[in-house]
Amino acid sequence: MSADFSPSFFYSSSFFPFFVLLILLLTVIPALLISNRINRLSGGDVRQLFVNKKNHWIGVLVTAQFVIGVALIMGMITANRQMGLVKQAGERYRNLIEIWNTSTETDLRLFKQKVQSVPGVSGISLGNMRLMNVWIMHADMRKENGEKFQTTVFGLSGDEGLFRILQLQQLVGSEWETLPERYGSAVFVNRTFANLVEKPVEELIGEPLGRYMDSLDSVSVIAGVVEDFYFNSLEKKAMAVKMTRISSLEDRLTAMQIRLDGNDNGLAIKNIRQLWEQTYPDEFFTYADVYNTFISRNSKVTEMSDLLQMYSLISILLTCFGLFGISFYAVRRRTKEIGIRKINGAKTYQILWLLLKPIFGWIIIGFAIGVPLAWWLMERWLQQFAYRVDVSIGSFFLALLLVSVITILTVLWQLWRTIKVNPVESLKSE
């Protein structure tokens, strides 16, 4: 069972009061109480502030900060890794734009010839449908053993440039560009199609499409198989795809995909727009960035990634402020003790360890609680994706490393300044 953690809730006004209350509980209130308590203590008594059983609530609150920080950092790392998976799946759409028109279908071939000369354009394909709005068929299918089943099949079509434009990986079969020369009517399918009909990809080549799929197309043969690629969110498994090679001479060519070289896409699009306005002065120029369209269909990942980055940063900053305040007051009240220890021969690293030891204890406890909590939450969140990363052990240790380094850097400067003071001056100040 998956948990549908809606990122929009954490941006909403309903969550804001809770977030403010959490900030007050874990930062402002402890800081005020600690400073008030320390101001009433002598230097020797300050140590008791951190070890006395009656004051364990201080360690609890600081540990709670570490729990939240570790959990958020782990969540951020996991969400970013899932975002990396989305970007990898959509990499074929990067630097790919699409323009379409419904009133000048027969003229797109002329526009294709003109666009080929635009600097920054590396490839063009014409088709009768947009990539992100492919034809969806609810098809009756048959497995190799004759068993019937129903499934959804995506129908995609394009001219000789489509295969190169989409950077598809061909598993077996004829070349897409030469299909009309070898077959009168042929289609490509994807790996999922082959898996659904339970037929090895090599044995599908040359088979009639009608043997495995009931459709109006009774003459096409399967001429090639490509690796799966994705149109929609990674929440869903890859669908079966049927790709039809069309001729550039067909009448209804309403969509054009243009591959840009990525050097200056803005300038290339500007030149394409100007060319469009010259060719079709009465038609409005409309285009879509296919990569951005694909990423937007995975908004659950992008929103969660942005959300966790924001809250992780806030949590780290609040923890740093709290630790700085604690170390500032504690060190000031232990100046005499530090001076006496130095006069008695204590090394700098020994004093540092004495002061840092409680903080390391809080980190370890926070890590022990935060890791299982973050693992459980992220596992539940990831269950909604058909294609997902795992919560890695590396993210555990990276979270621990980040929290430890940030904590040490926060308090070390204050501690180091106090330790390097002449012990005689320290005793005079007391």
From TrEMBL:
Keywords (A to Z) from UniProt:
Cell membrane, Membrane, Transmembrane, Transmembrane helix
**Domain ABC3 transporter permease C-terminal intervals:** 311-423
Places the protein is found: Cell membrane
What GO annotations for molecular function exist for this entry?
Answer: transmembrane transporter activity
Per the UniProt record, which residue ranges are transmembrane?
15-35, 56-77, 310-331, 351-376, 396-416
**Predominant cellular place of this UniProt entry's protein:** membrane
Q: What does the record say about its membrane topology?
A: Multi-pass membrane protein
List the GO terms this entry assigns under cellular component, sorted alphabetically.
plasma membrane
What's the protein here called?
Acidobacterial duplicated orphan permease
Organism, scientific name: Proteiniphilum saccharofermentans
